[in-house]
Design brief:
Shape of chain B: globular
Radius of gyration of chain B: 13 Å
Helix content of chain A: under 10%
Oligomer: heterodimer
Largest sheet of chain B: 6 strands, mixed
Shape of chain A: globular
Order of helices and strands of chain B: EEEEEEEEEEE
Strand content of chain B: over 45%
Strand content of chain A: over 45%
Distance between the termini of chain B: 36 Å
Order of helices and strands of chain A: EEEEEEEEEEE
């Protein structure tokens, strides 16, 4: 399976600022996925990031708020823009590698907006 | 009704007890995952299952595809097992991952 390095593991940010979360994979993967877990809720898919094309966003998530970059097959970033306390969540990336259903997950980023 | 349901939502047990956490799902799947989320939010992948049973140390995961049900067992539980355990399935319908809400486990010394 692939190994994902996700950074930062946690951050406390001021409202109105932006935070960029990085995921580095040790193998080349076609798609990377970004999720959000709001307090007390289950993880929810934000978007799917393909290399060489714009990310595909799920209903309720927009590119202006959560811009995603996918410059190559091993790296992706998710930016949480113009943050408010409601953006305080855990953000997680994942990839599918080595066969259908062979998902690998990052370790998560705990974001607190004050 | 959620497509992935976990039970119980919360579980408190004494150190040494045998723990069972259940996951039921309503969609066809290609794989099921058990994840452990530490109190600080960090997530660790425990198992990926498509059939049968897997064991790693004191952890055992089983899946019954026909019944659309999986269980995670912890033998000889220890306070360091205290965490949220999340069941996630990769849907065969749209190939997306659907997460359960998690089971919060607290093991008392």
């Amino acid at each position: 399976s692939a190994v994902i390095s996700q950074k930062p593991s946690r951050d406390i940010c001021q409202r109105g600022t932006s935070l960029t979360i990085q995921c580095q994979v040790d193998s080349q993967v076609t798609m990377m996925f970004w999720y959000r877990q709001q307090p007390g809720q289950s993880l929810t898919l934000i978007a799917t990031a393909n290399q060489g094309s714009e990310a595909t966003y799920e209903s309720g998530f927009v590119i202006d708020k959560f811009p995603i970059s996918r410059p190559n097959l091993t790296f992706s970033t998710l930016t949480v823009s113009n943050m408010s306390p409601e953006d305080s969540s855990i953000y997680l990336c994942s990839v599918e590698f080595g066969g259908r259903g062979r998902d690998t997950f990052g370790s998560g980023t705990r974001l607190t907006v004050v | 009704k959620n497509e992935v349901e976990q039970s119980p939502q919360n579980l408190t047990a004494q150190e040494g007890e045998f723990i069972t956490i259940n996951c039921s799902y309503s969609v066809g799947i290609s794989a099921l995952h058990w994840l452990q989320q530490h109190p600080g939010g960090g997530i660790v992948s425990l198992f990926m299952l498509s059939s049968g049973k897997k064991k790693h140390g004191r952890l055992i995961a089983t899946i019954n595809i026909q019944e659309k049900h999986s269980s995670l067992h912890i033998t000889a539980s220890h306070p360091r097992d205290s965490a949220v355990y999340i069941c996630a399935v990769r849907s065969g319908r749209d190939d997306k991952i659907i997460f359960g809400k998690g089971t919060r486990l607290h093991i008392l010394p």
